[in-house]
Amino acid sequence: MLKQTAHLLLLAVSGLLLSPAFVYAAEAGSDGGNYKLGLALAAGLGMGIAALGGALGQGKAAHAALEGMARNPEASGKLFVPMILCLVFVESLVLFTFAICFILQGKI
After folding, report:
1. Disulfide engineering: 90 pairs with which of 8, 39, 57, 104, CB 3.0-4.6 Å?
2. Contacts by 41-44 with C-beta closer than 8 Å and gap 24+?
3. Are 61 and 43 in contact (CB under 8 A)?
């Protein structure tokens, strides 16, 4: 699992580093094709990484809260609200990323 995560992280970082290269290369050219390609890659990678990161974060938060509730059922009322708040904050970051990606898609 750790090896797969490391490979995925390397792929995501390399994708993030290559997207601005397409955008800067397009500014030097006159046709604008590379610029649109860079925006499309940035929007697509942004959505994928946001969904992946949000899913991993929500999974870890839900796992920890449910494990705490299973170990101490009397504390389930105290753990429920912080768990929901944590899930809301993680999801709001994903939604902000989606909004930015849709703005980038509008420029293509």
Report:
1. 57
2. 41/15, 42/101, 42/104, 43/101, 43/102, 43/104, 43/105, 43/108, 44/101
3. no
> Which CATH number do you get for residue 90?
1.20.20.10
Residue with tokens 């580093």: 17
Q: Are 45 and 12 in contact (CB under 8 A)?
A: yes
pLDDT of residue 1: 60
Q: What is this structure's pTM?
A: 0.58
Residue 93: domain span: 2-106
> Would you give the DSSP letter of residue 31?
S
Classify residue 43 as exposed, middle or buried by CB count within 10 Å of its CB (0-12, 13-18, 19+).
buried
Q: Which residue has the tokens 């709001």?
A: 92
Q: How many CB atoms lie within 10 A of CB 101?
A: 20
Q: Could you give the number of structural domains in the chain?
A: 1
